[in-house]
Known about the structure:
By secondary structure, chain A is an all-alpha fold.
Amino acid sequence: MFDRIENGPPKLTATDEARRQVEICNACRYCEGYCAVFPSAFSQRAFSDGDITQLASLCHNCRGCYYACQYTEPHEFALNLPRALAEVRVESWDRFAWPGGFARLFQRSGGALALMLVLGIAALFWALTALAPSGGEGFYAYLSHTAMVAIFAPAFLLPLAAIAIGLHRYWAEVGGERIRWPHLKAACADAATMRNLSGGAAEGCNFEKGDRYSQARRHAHQAVFWGFLLCFAATSSGTVLHYVFDMQAPYGLFSLPKLLGLPGGVLLTIGAIGLIALKFKADAHLGAPEVWGGEVAFTALLGLTGLTGLLLYAATGTALVAPLLALHLGTVLAFFLTTPYSKMVHGFYRMAALIRDAQRKQG
Amino acid sequence: MTALDAQPWDLVIVGGGNAALCAAIEAAEAGLKPLILEAAPKPYRGGNSRHTRNFRCMHRGPLSVLTGSYEEDEYFDDLIRVTKGETDEALARMTIRTSEDCLPWMEAHGVAFQPSLSGTLSLSRTNAFFLGGGKALVNAYYNTAEDLGVTVAYEAEVTQIHVTGPRFEGVTAKIAGHETRIEGRGLILASGGFQADLDWLARAWGPAARNFLIRGTPYNRGVPLKAMLDHGADSVGDPTQCHAVAIDGRAAKFDGGIVTRLDCVPFSIVVNQNGERFYDEGEDVWPKRYAIWGRLVAAQPEQVAYSIIDAKSRELFMPSVYPPVEADTLDGLAQKLGLPGTKLRETVEAFNAACRDGDFHPTELDGLATEGLTPPKTNWARPITEPPFYGYSLRPGVTFTYLGLKVDETARVAGPAGRFDNIWAAGEIMAGSILGQGYLAGFGMTIGTVFGRIAGQEAAAHV
């Protein structure tokens, strides 16, 4: 700290800068009621790199602590904890991602994500042309079930394997212990209610309205989160219907895949639009500015998976089915393949951090 | 912004902290158009309120985050204990009784509370903590005030107050470098004490005060207070005294705030720059003693002292914001701290020799006292033997000054011929009426809230 003041600011790593700030927080403790970051930090006296990674992964960037802080610039302590922790997250996802390098690219570059989208869609147009089936109903008239499985089984399972490797590295770095049911239960409850975006005792967070509290980000994120899970459940239910009950697509409106998928798609689309709008209103300097574009592009990609799905359903029976099918499946393909390297991965690390925090609290 | 000098304002409020904001909100809710003149720029708005963390509140049963009950007589007894009777009982009891209504009012006007912070469980019954601390409270009030149509001018430093007989007429303020005369039908003074004016502090306390650190805002320079005293306003409080605690000697001159506190003293020996001890470090638990250490250190040469511990005690107190100076030997530590090495070693050896065996309990008075040592250490006396050795420098950190304006229970300021017609005061600037000596945690915010609200209501009823 003294070096920093006397010799001008040497370039600290994101972890070192966050440690400098958290040590000041630990002597103040006014923010204890905001979110899980603070009780977790205040249970310690010294912070290893792994401790800082864990604190960063607990932070939801709600910014309540920034606006409450008496030590933000122009004060010499220059605290900006939401940004410091956001930058640690970005660095840590780069470090944990396997294979290395992709996370650097896709976290920062909205252009790279857009290029993946174009490639995904092109791949599906090619598949529709090259692998055109001779028969089949509904979508399978355009791309056979076998071809779909051949594309999407690896496109789903390989990224999951990559994420598992990242999570394993995370768990080692933060010193995680064996996971037991009560840890999972506590973490799921926090995630399901977005407790850490509730503002502690206040009315929401300080994301887009400066020092005024707002529930907008929590609500938009809930829409995306539950919308995504509903869409995922819709696809899973289709798989079960197909393999277990031998009921093949297309499914009617009152079938599980449609009853789950329709509201899921609507929530996902609306939520993603909301999150992007909030991101344009919020101060980029209280997050990690270098990934702002990548995050917006990712949110748009996620929203597009919902929107193209809805359009595809709306186009049932028209000539638009083939191009919309390529558009939707191409979007989903790009989304799956980049999941371990885009902002999407935050969900996995956040969950791991909540489990780790439950371990700390439950002992 | 509205041209500030174009109209006579319903109400001019000098200051931008808790008391000023409570006054502005009450006045605006009663239909007035108040103008707040805040001397600080926007990032530093809120005076010393931005450094606070809780509000001491009477309650007859569990209330919001407060547990149990804390009734008028117990509260008043606590006040008598710290002020040693230096209080106006009627005003003090009125303040205490009114505090109970204030907490729900604060919540209704945007303030969020949190349960007592870790390490402050002893206050969970008496003090309601602000979620995020005082700056979050200040932000909430500025938002509420803005929604009610209150006008705020930042970097607006009042230089003169214009009074004719018993009537306030206007102020002159330097706003963005320009002197502007602003007319008003009423005036509320909520501009704090004078502790940031080091010249004034040095005149009042003595030249040693130039070595004091100011824990809070650099904008409380007491200009409005001085102007009112020059107009013949009645004063209260000892003009020479300030409330000072011992803080980290490496803190910045101003605005170090809460993080500069040091809780190591009870587990240490404290020496002056000659390497000599001068007071019983283990007299009582730290929350009951930190306030006297400001004065004790102020009486030492160069107004500095050094708290010395060994490895055994390193983790017994809240972490400090600056890491301690560390050395493997006492000589090494003396060198790094700039203390006479031989003398420090003699002091530590004499202390160690006076320690006796017994059970050590860091969280309670353990009676582990020295024998035959002057001054004694009456609790937590363990020999300083285990390297590494650590040292922290201590300096007096001024929180507030006691000199203020005399007010009645309607917050009206008293002048040479009875009360002024249209001048009220709230917060630190009149707190000396109630808190004539010492300090009670969270009571400054209580006085500010109670009198800020009264001043706002009274102004609305009379202008």
